[in-house]
Amino acid sequence: MPNYRRAKLPGGTYFLTQVTHERQPWLLGKIGRVALRTAIVHVRQKYPFTIDAFVLLPEHFHCLWTLPEGDSDLSTRLRLIKTFVTKRFGKQLGIKSELSTSRQKRKEGNLWQRRFWEHLIRDEEDFIKHCDYIHYNPVRHQLCSTPQDWQFSSIHRLTTQGIYLPNWGSNGIPEAADSVWDI
Questions:
Q1: What is the set of domains in the chain, with CATH numbers?
Q2: Model pTM score
Q3: N or C: which end of the chain has fewer CB within 10 A?
Q4: How confident is the model over 16-57, as pLDDT tens digits?
């Protein structure tokens, strides 16, 4: 069994991407949105983290999370979120897909891709590039014309806070981070 190495920095900020199983586009439906939001709220009660940026797309999401000082356990948080959604909302979502023998053996469901992509943010420039990547992603996937047109994004909160200008990203593609996995 592979031993995946993940960067671990207590109190670190991480860019992460989670994809649905077989890219099933269930995340934007009402049940999918409620399930993910409820799971995040639930997990943050015991395992707190700050959501610095977030975008939800039909079959994946990107986010920037900052963990508390002294804590580097990103994997447990994401595993618990995925498990909560699967156990509490899996039947309601009604996703129809065959489970491989491997998934059956591991008692995995059909909602989430097994692994996730993460990148430890190195500095402020890296943070900004990944934040921009997150917010421009719906435009990149041709789901909207400007980042502000996408409903399921933290760009609206960050624009209200004055971090982004109201027309950010409407005049072309912002520079992307080198380490971003382009999904």
A1: 13-123 (3.30.70.1290)
A2: 0.87
A3: N
A4: 999 999 999 999 999 999 999 999 999 999 999 999 999 999
